[in-house]
Write a structure and sequence with these properties.
Layout (H helix, E strand, L loop, with lengths): L3 H8 L35 H12 L36 H15 L3 H24 L1 H6 L1
């Protein structure tokens, strides 16, 4: 399926690149979105929609279309000044080993975190169970 730029070139009478024939299962007229692109899965435009578009154009009430911007002619670029060369940056050779040591220390400090979180979860479950038990006792609801 040709792009909208190729269609515009064809309508302007510009030469077209060699394009093979369209497959037989591709519909002749498809709906276009607001950017002029056809749907990913080709769907034919309904007869009523085609009739509406044609009658709008024949009746002079077709929506105005913005003209396609022409590409600016290419010009010779101005020479770019050579960037000044900076001295190479020397990286700290111990940064990798310091990073590994920091990760080892963090792993040691967080070693018991799973047990602590399990304990917190167990206590929260016990509190929730006690709360639900209080809410379900009929005598407490009547006296409250």
């Amino acid at each position: 399926m040709p792009s909208t730029r190729l269609v515009a070139q064809l309508l302007d009478g510009q030469p077209m690149p060699a394009v093979g024939p369209a497959p037989a299962e591709v519909p002749l007229v498809t709906p276009l979105d607001r950017w002029g692109a056809a749907p990913l899965r080709p769907e034919p435009l309904s007869a009523a929609a085609i009739a509406g578009i044609i009658s709008a154009h024949l009746g002079g009430s077709a929506p105005a279309h913005r003209p396609l911007r022409k590409n600016a002619p290419t010009t010779v670029p101005e020479p770019v000044a050579e960037p000044e060369l900076l001295e190479p940056v020397v990286l700290d050779p111990d940064s990798f080993s310091r990073g590994l040591n920091a990760r080892r220390l963090a792993a040691q400090r967080l070693d018991g975190i799973s047990d602590a979180l399990d304990d917190v979860e167990a206590r929260a479950d016990a509190l929730l169970a006690g709360l639900l038990e209080l809410l379900e006792e009929p005598e407490l609801r009547r006296s409250g």
